[in-house]
Amino acid sequence: MLVAIDGPAGAGKSTVARAVAGDLGFTYLDSGAMYRCVALLSIASPQEQPAKLARGARIELGDAPPGRPPRALLNGRDVTEEIRVPEVSEAASRVAADPGVREALVAKQRELIAGGDWVAEGRDIGTVVAPDAALKVFLTADAHERARRRAEQMGADAGTVLAEQALRDARDSTREHGPLRPAPGAVTLDTTDLGVEEVVERIAALARAHPART
Fold first, then answer.
1. What does residue 176 show for φ and ψ, rounded to 5 degrees?
2. Which of 38, 152, 173, 180 is the residue whose CA sits 20 to 30 A from 31?
3. What is the pLDDT along the chain (214 residues), one digit of tens a residue?
């Protein structure tokens, strides 16, 4: 069974998806980490086409220690911390708009989730990567609340994060390939006034009640 969780930055996708996967005993896939890996390569080799870098990248994602992001290996090197800095986050949004990059990484993601039970999160899991996912969830939240969460997470100024977030939201939702939007049939869940545990409980309950689990 595949649970697809999409939504904008700051909606709680990563935290929630990891917890849901742990609750259900599923494997967690952080698709955003894959785009961050390509962004890191692009920053290091700006003369190379991002799509070429994406096709050649060997990306391995591991388990997430409690309270930490999942381990990411890029061409055999641990880049878990490197791909989480603001510069890489911004670059990831840019390379994600490249259709060649998306084509390469969507293929890698589909290969990963082809078998077994998964919770996959990103911005186009339910719309592009796995439109036939058993359960599709779109997490959202008030823009100011999303900015507050990310600022707290990164130790940054909330106003600065809000401005950068607005640009990223616009880019993600208007790009030609895989724009950010709820998938047909997705359950939309506003997390503005909900705690992580409550969101996790709701999604896990939906997954357990789904016919695919019977």
1. -70, -40
2. 152
3. 999 999 988 888 888 999 999 999 999 998 989 999 999 999 999 999 999 999 999 999 887 666 677 789 999 999 999 999 889 988 998 898 899 999 999 999 999 899 889 999 988 899 999 999 999 999 999 999 989 988 887 778 889 889 988 888 888 888 777 788 999 999 999 999 999 999 999 999 999 998 876 5
CB 45 within 8 A of CB 38: no
* Residues 61, 33 contacting (CB under 8 angstroms): yes
Measured CA to CA, the distance from residue 62 to residue 131 in angstroms comes to: 24
Whether the CB-CB separation of 89 and 14 falls below 8 Å is answered with no
**Tokens matching residue 116:** 């077994």
The token pair at 53 is: 């870098």
Q: What DSSP character marks residue 213?
A: G
Quickly list DSSP for 46-72.
TTS-HHHHHHH--EEE-PPPTTSPPPE
Helices (H), the chain: 13-24, 31-44, 50-56, 86-95, 99-112, 143-154, 158-174, 196-209
Cβ neighbors of 141 (< 8 A, separation 6 or more) are: 10, 11, 12, 149, 190, 191, 192
pTM: 0.85
9 and 141 in contact (C-beta within 8 Å)? no
Domains of the chain: 2-209 (3.40.50.300)
Q: For the residues of 129-172, what is the DSSP string, one character each? A: I-TT-SEEEEEE--HHHHHHHHHHHHT--HHHHHHHHHHHHHHH
